[in-house]
Amino acid sequence: QVQLVDSGGGLVQAGGSLRLSCTASGRTDTIDVIGWSRRPPGMERELVAAINRAGKTEYLDSVRGRFTISRDSVKNTIDLQMDNLNAEDTAVYYCTAGTLGDDGNYAHLYWGQGTQVSVVS
User: Fold this and answer.
1) Is 29 helix (H, G, I), strand (E, B) or coil?
2) Rounded (5°) CA angle 109-20-76
3) Helix (H, G, I), strand (E, B) or coil at 15
4) Contact 81/101 with Cβ under 8 angstroms?
5) How far apart (Å, rounded) are the C-alpha atoms in residues 49 and 38?
6) What's the pLDDT at 65?
7) What is the pLDDT of residue 97?
8) Residue 121, CB-side half-sphere exposure with 13 Å CA sphere
9) Fewest CB atoms within 10 A around its CB: which of 9, 18, 105, 117?
10) Given the DSSP bridges, would you call strands 77-82 and 67-72 parallel, antiparallel or unpaired?
């Protein structure tokens, strides 16, 4: 089992920045991919940014160039630096971690409790 605790959300004006942090504990050695997802109001959850064991990152197209994911493998933390925020970034953000099965699909998915990010004009 993996436990994720995320924090750092808040209210920010458009164009501003926020930094989200996530601390993983438990069987962190089983994590293959870790990152951040978000659920905008009335919408489905979507993956925002992720980083795998090799350090390869991927981003949602709408945040690429504005968001940066970083990892501290010693501290088992994942940060998401969010710059130039706009109203469309308003959502509950969840730290997300996954372990892959032998078939390459996710065998287990873990979620933090979520942190609210609200961007106002």
Assistant:
1) helix
2) 55
3) coil
4) no
5) 10
6) 98
7) 97
8) 2
9) 105
10) antiparallel
Torsion of CA 109, 110, 113, 114, to 10 degrees: -50
Instruction: Output the six-digit token pair for 23.
Output: 């601390």
| Residue 31: both structure tokens together | 């994590």
Taking the C-alpha atoms of residue 33 and residue 68, their distance in angstroms, rounded to an integer, is: 16
How far apart, in whole angstroms, are the C-alpha atoms of residue 52 and residue 54?
5
pLDDT tens, per residue, the chain with 121 residues: 999 999 999 999 999 999 999 999 999 999 999 999 999 999 999 999 999 999 999 999 999 999 999 999 899 999 999 999 999 999 999 999 999 999 888 889 999 999 999 999 8
Q: Sign of torsion, CA 79 84 87 88?
A: negative
Who's near 51: CB < 8 A, 6+ residues apart? 33, 34, 35, 57, 58, 69, 70, 71, 78
